[in-house]
Protein backbone atom coordinates (compact mmCIF):
# COMPACT_ATOMS: atom_id res chain seq x y z
CA UNK A 1 0.00 0.00 0.00
CA UNK A 2 2.85 2.37 0.83
CA UNK A 3 4.34 1.99 -2.60
CA UNK A 4 1.07 3.01 -4.46
CA UNK A 5 0.78 6.16 -2.41
CA UNK A 6 4.26 7.23 -3.22
CA UNK A 7 3.62 6.69 -6.94
CA UNK A 8 0.59 8.92 -6.97
CA UNK A 9 2.40 11.54 -5.00
CA UNK A 10 5.12 11.47 -7.56
CA UNK A 11 2.50 12.09 -10.34
CA UNK A 12 1.12 15.10 -8.53
CA UNK A 13 4.56 16.51 -8.06
CA UNK A 14 5.33 15.98 -11.74
CA UNK A 15 2.12 18.12 -12.63
CA UNK A 16 2.06 20.75 -9.97
CA UNK A 17 -0.44 22.96 -12.03
CA UNK A 18 -3.20 20.37 -12.15
CA UNK A 19 -5.73 21.36 -9.50
CA UNK A 20 -6.53 19.09 -6.76
CA UNK A 21 -10.22 18.36 -6.09
CA UNK A 22 -11.76 21.21 -4.10
CA UNK A 23 -8.99 23.70 -5.04
CA UNK A 24 -9.78 26.62 -7.47
CA UNK A 25 -7.31 27.20 -10.31
CA UNK A 26 -5.42 30.52 -9.87
CA UNK A 27 -6.50 32.00 -13.26
CA UNK A 28 -10.23 31.40 -12.74
CA UNK A 29 -12.38 29.71 -15.51
CA UNK A 30 -11.31 31.83 -18.55
CA UNK A 31 -9.56 29.04 -20.43
CA UNK A 32 -12.68 26.95 -20.44
CA UNK A 33 -14.85 29.85 -21.67
CA UNK A 34 -12.57 30.62 -24.65
CA UNK A 35 -12.63 27.18 -25.95
CA UNK A 36 -16.37 26.75 -25.39
CA UNK A 37 -17.11 27.64 -29.22
CA UNK A 38 -14.90 25.59 -31.52
CA UNK A 39 -12.78 27.65 -33.95
CA UNK A 40 -14.14 26.14 -37.19
CA UNK A 41 -17.67 27.15 -36.14
CA UNK A 42 -16.50 30.74 -35.51
CA UNK A 43 -14.84 30.89 -38.97
CA UNK A 44 -18.04 29.57 -40.62
CA UNK A 45 -20.14 32.16 -38.76
CA UNK A 46 -17.83 34.97 -39.83
CA UNK A 47 -17.88 33.76 -43.46
CA UNK A 48 -21.69 33.68 -43.51
CA UNK A 49 -21.88 37.12 -41.98
CA UNK A 50 -19.49 38.47 -44.64
CA UNK A 51 -21.56 36.91 -47.46
CA UNK A 52 -24.74 38.40 -46.01
CA UNK A 53 -23.20 41.93 -45.82
CA UNK A 54 -21.85 41.60 -49.40
CA UNK A 55 -25.27 40.54 -50.63
CA UNK A 56 -26.95 43.47 -48.90
CA UNK A 57 -24.36 45.87 -50.35
CA UNK A 58 -24.93 44.52 -53.87
CA UNK A 59 -28.70 44.89 -53.45
CA UNK A 60 -28.22 48.50 -52.21
CA UNK A 61 -25.95 49.32 -55.16
CA UNK A 62 -28.44 47.87 -57.65
CA UNK A 63 -31.31 49.80 -56.04
CA UNK A 64 -29.18 53.01 -56.08
CA UNK A 65 -28.32 52.50 -59.76
CA UNK A 66 -31.97 51.93 -60.61
CA UNK A 67 -33.16 55.03 -58.72
CA UNK A 68 -30.34 57.17 -60.24
CA UNK A 69 -31.31 56.07 -63.75
CA UNK A 70 -34.96 56.84 -63.02
CA UNK A 71 -34.02 60.27 -61.61
CA UNK A 72 -31.94 61.08 -64.71
CA UNK A 73 -34.79 59.91 -66.97
CA UNK A 74 -37.25 62.10 -65.04
CA UNK A 75 -34.93 65.13 -65.24
CA UNK A 76 -34.42 64.63 -68.99
CA UNK A 77 -38.16 64.22 -69.57
CA UNK A 78 -38.82 67.39 -67.53
CA UNK A 79 -36.21 69.30 -69.58
CA UNK A 80 -37.70 67.99 -72.83
CA UNK A 81 -41.15 69.14 -71.71
CA UNK A 82 -39.75 72.60 -70.82
CA UNK A 83 -38.00 72.76 -74.23
CA UNK A 84 -41.20 71.77 -76.03
CA UNK A 85 -43.12 74.52 -74.18
CA UNK A 86 -40.37 77.06 -74.98
CA UNK A 87 -40.25 76.14 -78.66
CA UNK A 88 -44.04 76.39 -78.93
CA UNK A 89 -43.88 79.82 -77.24
CA UNK A 90 -41.13 80.94 -79.66
CA UNK A 91 -43.21 79.73 -82.63
CA UNK A 92 -46.22 81.62 -81.25
CA UNK A 93 -44.12 84.78 -80.81
CA UNK A 94 -42.72 84.50 -84.35
CA UNK A 95 -46.25 84.19 -85.72
CA UNK A 96 -47.32 87.26 -83.73
CA UNK A 97 -44.30 89.26 -84.98
CA UNK A 98 -45.08 88.28 -88.60
CA UNK A 99 -48.72 89.25 -88.14
CA UNK A 100 -47.70 92.58 -86.59
CA UNK A 101 -45.18 93.42 -89.31
CA UNK A 102 -47.71 92.63 -92.04
CA UNK A 103 -50.24 94.81 -90.18
CA UNK A 104 -47.71 97.68 -90.01
CA UNK A 105 -46.90 97.25 -93.71
CA UNK A 106 -50.60 97.24 -94.58
CA UNK A 107 -51.32 100.35 -92.51
CA UNK A 108 -48.27 102.11 -94.02
CA UNK A 109 -49.46 101.25 -97.52
CA UNK A 110 -52.93 102.48 -96.67
CA UNK A 111 -51.56 105.64 -95.09
CA UNK A 112 -49.39 106.56 -98.06
CA UNK A 113 -51.56 105.35 -100.92
CA UNK A 114 -55.26 105.64 -100.20
CA UNK A 115 -55.76 108.20 -97.47
CA UNK A 116 -54.98 111.77 -98.57
CA UNK A 117 -52.82 113.68 -96.10
CA UNK A 118 -54.76 116.46 -94.43
CA UNK A 119 -53.15 119.67 -95.69
CA UNK A 120 -53.13 123.01 -93.87
CA UNK A 121 -53.66 125.07 -97.03
CA UNK A 122 -52.61 125.66 -100.64
CA UNK A 123 -49.35 127.44 -99.70
CA UNK A 124 -47.98 129.44 -96.74
CA UNK A 125 -49.79 132.64 -97.80
CA UNK A 126 -53.08 130.71 -97.86
CA UNK A 127 -52.37 129.23 -94.39
CA UNK A 128 -51.59 132.70 -93.01
CA UNK A 129 -54.79 134.17 -94.48
CA UNK A 130 -56.95 131.40 -93.01
CA UNK A 131 -55.34 131.52 -89.53
CA UNK A 132 -54.78 135.27 -89.08
CA UNK A 133 -58.27 135.88 -87.65
CA UNK A 134 -58.16 132.79 -85.39
CA UNK A 135 -54.60 132.65 -84.00
CA UNK A 136 -53.05 135.72 -82.33
CA UNK A 137 -49.52 134.76 -83.44
CA UNK A 138 -49.01 132.18 -86.18
CA UNK A 139 -45.78 130.22 -85.56
CA UNK A 140 -43.14 129.66 -88.23
CA UNK A 141 -42.44 125.99 -88.91
CA UNK A 142 -43.21 122.99 -91.10
CA UNK A 143 -46.71 122.83 -92.60
CA UNK A 144 -48.37 120.52 -95.13
CA UNK A 145 -49.60 122.24 -98.28
CA UNK A 146 -51.67 121.04 -101.22
CA UNK A 147 -51.41 123.49 -104.14
CA UNK A 148 -54.43 123.79 -106.44
CA UNK A 149 -54.66 121.50 -109.48
CA UNK A 150 -52.12 119.01 -108.10
CA UNK A 151 -52.67 115.51 -106.79
CA UNK A 152 -49.94 115.70 -104.15
CA UNK A 153 -49.50 117.18 -100.68
CA UNK A 154 -46.03 117.94 -99.34
CA UNK A 155 -44.29 119.62 -96.42
CA UNK A 156 -42.81 123.12 -96.61
CA UNK A 157 -41.26 125.53 -94.12
CA UNK A 158 -43.49 128.59 -93.62
CA UNK A 159 -41.93 131.82 -92.33
CA UNK A 160 -44.74 133.55 -90.48
CA UNK A 161 -42.85 136.30 -88.62
CA UNK A 162 -40.67 137.77 -91.40
CA UNK A 163 -41.95 140.92 -93.13
CA UNK A 164 -45.62 140.18 -92.56
CA UNK A 165 -45.34 136.36 -92.81
CA UNK A 166 -46.91 133.95 -95.28
CA UNK A 167 -43.59 133.06 -96.95
CA UNK A 168 -42.98 129.57 -98.39
CA UNK A 169 -39.22 128.91 -98.13
CA UNK A 170 -37.83 127.43 -101.37
CA UNK A 171 -34.15 127.50 -100.41
CA UNK A 172 -32.16 128.07 -97.21
CA UNK A 173 -28.40 128.03 -96.62
CA UNK A 174 -26.84 128.78 -93.26
CA UNK A 175 -23.98 126.49 -92.21
CA UNK A 176 -22.73 124.77 -95.39
CA UNK A 177 -23.36 121.31 -93.92
CA UNK A 178 -25.82 120.25 -96.64
CA UNK A 179 -24.14 119.30 -99.90
CA UNK A 180 -25.46 121.30 -102.87
CA UNK A 181 -23.33 119.34 -105.39
CA UNK A 182 -26.33 117.43 -106.77
CA UNK A 183 -27.66 115.95 -110.03
CA UNK A 184 -30.82 117.07 -111.87
CA UNK A 185 -33.11 114.56 -110.09
CA UNK A 186 -32.24 116.00 -106.65
CA UNK A 187 -32.83 119.60 -107.74
CA UNK A 188 -36.14 118.57 -109.33
CA UNK A 189 -37.41 116.67 -106.23
CA UNK A 190 -35.70 118.63 -103.45
CA UNK A 191 -33.15 117.75 -100.72
CA UNK A 192 -31.98 118.69 -97.21
CA UNK A 193 -33.98 119.28 -94.03
CA UNK A 194 -36.85 121.77 -94.12
CA UNK A 195 -36.00 123.21 -90.69
CA UNK A 196 -32.36 123.73 -91.77
CA UNK A 197 -30.51 123.90 -95.08
CA UNK A 198 -32.59 122.69 -97.99
CA UNK A 199 -33.74 123.08 -101.57
CA UNK A 200 -37.51 122.57 -101.76
CA UNK A 201 -37.47 121.15 -105.29
CA UNK A 202 -38.32 122.66 -108.69
CA UNK A 203 -41.41 120.45 -109.17
CA UNK A 204 -42.91 121.62 -105.85
CA UNK A 205 -42.12 125.30 -106.51
CA UNK A 206 -43.66 124.94 -109.99
CA UNK A 207 -46.90 123.58 -108.44
CA UNK A 208 -47.04 126.46 -105.94
CA UNK A 209 -46.43 129.35 -108.36
CA UNK A 210 -48.60 127.91 -111.15
CA UNK A 211 -51.89 127.91 -109.24
CA UNK A 212 -54.58 129.69 -111.22
CA UNK A 213 -55.28 133.38 -110.59
CA UNK A 214 -52.15 133.78 -108.46
CA UNK A 215 -49.02 135.85 -108.66
CA UNK A 216 -45.97 135.26 -106.51
CA UNK A 217 -43.19 137.49 -105.30
CA UNK A 218 -39.64 136.11 -104.88
CA UNK A 219 -37.67 137.48 -101.94
CA UNK A 220 -33.96 136.77 -101.45
CA UNK A 221 -32.59 137.65 -97.98
CA UNK A 222 -28.77 137.78 -97.80
CA UNK A 223 -26.42 137.96 -94.79
CA UNK A 224 -22.76 138.83 -95.29
CA UNK A 225 -19.86 137.49 -93.23
CA UNK A 226 -19.65 140.84 -91.40
CA UNK A 227 -23.39 140.44 -90.50
CA UNK A 228 -24.55 143.15 -92.93
CA UNK A 229 -27.97 142.18 -94.30
CA UNK A 230 -29.78 143.09 -97.50
CA UNK A 231 -32.34 141.67 -99.92
CA UNK A 232 -33.36 141.39 -103.55
CA UNK A 233 -37.02 141.08 -104.43
CA UNK A 234 -38.89 140.37 -107.69
CA UNK A 235 -42.58 141.26 -107.90
CA UNK A 236 -43.56 138.50 -110.32
CA UNK A 237 -41.88 135.09 -110.15
CA UNK A 238 -42.84 131.93 -111.96
CA UNK A 239 -41.29 128.82 -113.49
CA UNK A 240 -41.98 127.07 -116.78
CA UNK A 241 -42.69 123.32 -116.65
CA UNK A 242 -40.16 120.48 -116.60
CA UNK A 243 -40.16 119.99 -120.39
CA UNK A 244 -38.82 123.57 -120.57
CA UNK A 245 -36.32 122.78 -117.77
CA UNK A 246 -38.12 125.00 -115.22
CA UNK A 247 -36.98 128.24 -116.92
CA UNK A 248 -37.17 131.19 -114.51
CA UNK A 249 -39.31 134.28 -115.18
CA UNK A 250 -38.72 137.37 -113.04
CA UNK A 251 -40.69 140.58 -112.61
CA UNK A 252 -39.36 143.97 -111.50
CA UNK A 253 -36.38 144.07 -109.13
CA UNK A 254 -36.36 145.97 -105.80
CA UNK A 255 -33.85 145.87 -102.91
CA UNK A 256 -30.37 146.88 -101.85
CA UNK A 257 -28.19 144.14 -103.32
CA UNK A 258 -28.34 144.99 -107.02
CA UNK A 259 -30.05 142.81 -109.62
CA UNK A 260 -27.46 140.04 -110.03
CA UNK A 261 -30.01 137.87 -111.87
CA UNK A 262 -29.91 140.31 -114.80
CA UNK A 263 -26.33 141.50 -114.30
CA UNK A 264 -24.81 144.55 -115.90
CA UNK A 265 -24.89 143.45 -119.56
CA UNK A 266 -27.35 141.52 -121.69
CA UNK A 267 -25.12 138.42 -121.94
CA UNK A 268 -25.07 138.16 -118.12
CA UNK A 269 -28.88 138.12 -117.93
CA UNK A 270 -30.20 134.95 -116.27
CA UNK A 271 -33.90 135.93 -116.48
CA UNK A 272 -35.74 133.35 -118.67
CA UNK A 273 -32.74 130.96 -118.40
CA UNK A 274 -33.52 127.22 -118.06
CA UNK A 275 -32.26 125.38 -114.96
CA UNK A 276 -28.92 123.59 -115.37
CA UNK A 277 -27.03 120.85 -113.48
CA UNK A 278 -23.84 118.90 -114.15
CA UNK A 279 -25.87 116.10 -115.82
CA UNK A 280 -28.48 118.32 -117.58
CA UNK A 281 -26.59 121.17 -119.26
CA UNK A 282 -28.70 124.15 -120.41
CA UNK A 283 -26.23 126.94 -119.66
CA UNK A 284 -25.82 128.32 -123.20
CA UNK A 285 -22.07 127.55 -123.36
CA UNK A 286 -22.04 125.88 -126.80
CA UNK A 287 -19.48 124.43 -127.01
CA UNK A 288 -17.93 126.77 -124.45
CA UNK A 289 -18.14 130.33 -123.19
CA UNK A 290 -15.64 132.86 -121.91
CA UNK A 291 -15.57 133.70 -118.21
CA UNK A 292 -12.92 136.03 -116.75
CA UNK A 293 -10.72 135.30 -119.79
CA UNK A 294 -11.14 131.52 -119.32
CA UNK A 295 -12.96 129.08 -121.59
CA UNK A 296 -15.73 127.31 -119.71
CA UNK A 297 -17.61 124.29 -121.07
CA UNK A 298 -20.06 123.82 -118.19
CA UNK A 299 -21.17 126.47 -115.69
CA UNK A 300 -22.28 123.74 -113.25
CA UNK A 301 -18.78 122.19 -113.31
CA UNK A 302 -17.31 125.68 -112.92
CA UNK A 303 -19.54 126.12 -109.84
CA UNK A 304 -18.60 122.74 -108.31
CA UNK A 305 -21.46 120.61 -109.75
CA UNK A 306 -24.25 122.77 -108.30
CA UNK A 307 -27.55 123.54 -110.05
CA UNK A 308 -28.84 127.01 -111.03
CA UNK A 309 -30.39 129.08 -113.83
CA UNK A 310 -27.02 129.61 -115.52
CA UNK A 311 -26.57 131.70 -118.64
CA UNK A 312 -22.94 131.78 -119.81
CA UNK A 313 -22.63 131.70 -116.68
CA UNK A 314 -24.03 134.85 -115.03
CA UNK A 315 -23.44 136.80 -111.81
CA UNK A 316 -25.76 134.89 -109.47
CA UNK A 317 -25.63 131.37 -108.01
CA UNK A 318 -27.18 131.10 -104.54
CA UNK A 319 -26.50 127.34 -104.60
CA UNK A 320 -22.74 127.67 -105.16
CA UNK A 321 -20.35 125.62 -103.04
CA UNK A 322 -16.57 125.96 -102.63
CA UNK A 323 -14.29 123.77 -104.74
CA UNK A 324 -12.21 122.74 -101.73
CA UNK A 325 -11.09 123.90 -98.30
CA UNK A 326 -7.97 125.68 -99.55
CA UNK A 327 -9.88 127.79 -102.06
CA UNK A 328 -12.74 128.59 -99.71
CA UNK A 329 -10.45 129.96 -96.95
CA UNK A 330 -12.72 128.65 -94.22
CA UNK A 331 -15.92 129.45 -96.13
CA UNK A 332 -18.51 126.67 -95.80
CA UNK A 333 -20.59 128.05 -98.71
CA UNK A 334 -19.74 129.89 -101.93
CA UNK A 335 -22.91 131.92 -102.41
CA UNK A 336 -22.56 134.23 -105.40
CA UNK A 337 -24.51 137.51 -105.80
CA UNK A 338 -21.92 139.59 -107.60
CA UNK A 339 -23.81 142.92 -107.65
CA UNK A 340 -23.88 143.18 -103.81
CA UNK A 341 -20.60 144.98 -103.15
CA UNK A 342 -18.72 146.94 -100.53
CA UNK A 343 -15.83 149.22 -101.55
CA UNK A 344 -15.94 147.68 -105.01
CA UNK A 345 -15.60 144.08 -103.79
CA UNK A 346 -18.44 141.53 -103.65
CA UNK A 347 -19.63 140.74 -100.11
CA UNK A 348 -18.62 137.36 -98.74
CA UNK A 349 -22.09 135.88 -98.17
CA UNK A 350 -22.55 133.47 -95.26
CA UNK A 351 -26.28 132.76 -95.47
CA UNK A 352 -29.27 133.16 -97.78
CA UNK A 353 -32.98 132.37 -97.86
CA UNK A 354 -35.11 132.33 -101.00
CA UNK A 355 -38.83 132.60 -100.23
CA UNK A 356 -42.02 133.16 -102.16
CA UNK A 357 -45.34 134.75 -101.20
CA UNK A 358 -48.64 135.27 -102.97
CA UNK A 359 -49.33 138.87 -103.87
CA UNK A 360 -52.76 140.36 -104.42
CA UNK A 361 -53.88 140.45 -108.01
CA UNK A 362 -56.40 142.94 -109.42
CA UNK A 363 -58.77 140.34 -110.91
TrEMBL record:
Region (Disordered): 1-29
Chief location bin: secreted
Comp. bias regions, Basic and acidic residues: 1-12
Protein name (Swiss-Prot/TrEMBL): Fibrinogen C-terminal domain-containing protein
GO biological-process terms attached to the record: blood coagulation
Domain of life: Eukaryota
Subcellular location: Secreted
Pfam families, sorted: Fibrinogen_C
Keywords, alphabetical: Coiled coil, Disulfide bond, Glycoprotein, Secreted, Signal
Domain Fibrinogen C-terminal: 115-360
A GO term from the CC aspect: extracellular region
SUPFAM superfamilies in alphabetical order: Fibrinogen C-terminal domain-like
Amino acid sequence: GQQKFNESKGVIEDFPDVPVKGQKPPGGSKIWDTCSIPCDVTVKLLRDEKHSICGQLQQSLLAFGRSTRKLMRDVMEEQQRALDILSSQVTELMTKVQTLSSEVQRSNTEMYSTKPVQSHGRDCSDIKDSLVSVVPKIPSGIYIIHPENTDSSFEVFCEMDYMGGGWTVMQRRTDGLTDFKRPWADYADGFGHLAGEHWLGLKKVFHIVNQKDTRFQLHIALVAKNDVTSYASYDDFRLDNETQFFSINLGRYAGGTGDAFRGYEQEQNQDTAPFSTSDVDNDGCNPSCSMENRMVESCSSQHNQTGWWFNQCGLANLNGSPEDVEQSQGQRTHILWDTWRQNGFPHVIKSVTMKIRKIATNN
